[in-house]
Amino acid sequence: DAGVIQSPRHEVTEMGQEVTLRCKPISGHNSLFWYRQTMMRGLELLIYFNNNVPIDDSGMPEDRFSAKMPNASFSTLKIQPSEPRDSAVYFCASSADLSGTQYFGPGTRLTVL
Amino acid sequence: AQSVTQLGSHVSVSEGALVLLRCNYSSSVPPYLFWYVQYPNQGLQLLLKYTTGATLVKGINGFEAEFKKSETSFHLTKPSAHMSDAAEYFCAVSGGEEYGNKLVFGAGTILRVKS
Fold this sequence. Notes:
Number of helices of chain A: 0
Oligomer: heterodimer
Helix content of chain B: under 10%
Low-confidence stretches of chain A: none
Shape of chain A: globular
């Protein structure tokens, strides 16, 4: 089985540009999570969805960040406009079982110049 | 509310020595507990998890962890460290579906293995 798929794996952009990160969860999983990882702040939960519905977006840093899940097999995290402090590794994870076991994608390394 | 404390941001052991990574949790409901490992430039990989039943849980790569409710601990051990174990390890707690399957992570422990 394919795991969680994220694209692109690396993204370099200039400040002010729009960035879109993509995630395909494991088939059959009904929960999807977006995380951000930096050296300074560690692993932060940004937002999560259950059955394609956003449940908790309290971790989204500001209005420049938005996330969508139009169907069970696809989600996007958009940053507009991007800033250098958004540079981080962004992970997507999905879950299906009652215990909350999450399976992580390989991440997207974002660099904003 | 749930929280996780990992004691020691860095742990260094010699190859062949015992690995012990400490994790204490706080949870208002019976917890589900996890250890994840992250190798450089990779995502987090599930090492092992405790849900119910046997309190000693065995995972991949020879790791195991014991759930001790009285101590609110879930320490990770491996009898003999290998160079390939060098990575960052994260302990996490979940309240399960009732809490939206959210995981609360500890800050992580970087394991260094010396030859």
